[in-house]
Every structure is written in C-alpha cells, then in structure tokens.
C-alpha cells in the first residue's frame, strides 16, 4: 500500500524530473532544499558531491550546456516508501547507453537528497 507521504514525495520527484527533461534548471533547483545534497556518479572514486542549491545549479547547467544536452528516459515506475523515491533510467544511443538509479529523499515539498548510481553498457 502506498502512503500519502510516499505519493506526495513521488509527485515532487516527477516535477523535478520533468523540469530536468525541459532543461529548466531554475525550476529543478527550486524543487530542492537550500542545503540539498546531490551525489553524482562521476568524478574520482565514489563520485562528486554537491551541497546547496547554487552548487547543484552550476552542476546541472554544465550538463545541459554540453552539445546535445541530456534527456533521461525512466524505464520503470518509481519505488516509493515514505520520504524515499527510487527511479531507474537510461540515457544515450544504442551504441553507448548509460543506465542509472536515483535515490531521492524528500522533505516536505522539496528534494533534500539525490544520490545517483550508474553503469555503462
């Protein structure tokens, strides 16, 4: 059974993902808490951590400024539990696919944490 809290958390994540699909960095970051943590899968070791809206804004803007931009395709419905939402997605072409899982923690009506895990086919 899905709780109202889980349904609300999923709604926030859906709005966030839709904003990213439109490359609307301002709206996406507006759906995050001031002290949100984003653990990206790139960078040395276990990835790069961005803390706070401004650091995350700069990161997202850098991604969307790349030639071709980025668009994520959600592969399956989200898994929800209270304030947590997990989504599975992929980006890329048939020759080069990056698959990933995002683990979100939602606080109220904002994303407080986004942890990204990826693998390349």
Q: Would you kindly provide a written description of the structure presented here, covering whatever features stand out?
A:
This protein is an alpha+beta fold and 121 residues long. It has one domain (4-120): Roll (Nuclear Transport Factor 2, Chain: A). Helices cover 30% and strands 44% of the residues. The protein contains three helices and six strands; from the N terminus they run ααββαββββ. A six-stranded mixed β-sheet has the order 2-1-6-5-4-3. β5 and β6 (110-120) form a beta hairpin. The protein is globular and about 40 Å long. The termini are far apart. The mean pLDDT is 86.
Question: What descriptors fit this protein?
Answer:
44% strand, Nuclear Transport Factor 2, Chain: A, 6 strands, 121 residues
* Overall body shape: globular
Approximate strand percentage: 35-45%
Largest sheet features: 6 strands, mixed
| CATH class placement | Alpha Beta
Whole-number total of structural domains = 1
Helix-and-strand structural type: alpha+beta
- CATH overall fold name: Nuclear Transport Factor 2, Chain: A
Q: State the assembly state of the protein chains.
A: single chain
Return residue spans where pLDDT drops below 50 for at least 5 consecutive residues.
Answer: none
Compressed to H and E, one letter per element, the order equals HHEEHEEEE
Mind telling me which CATH architecture this is?
Roll
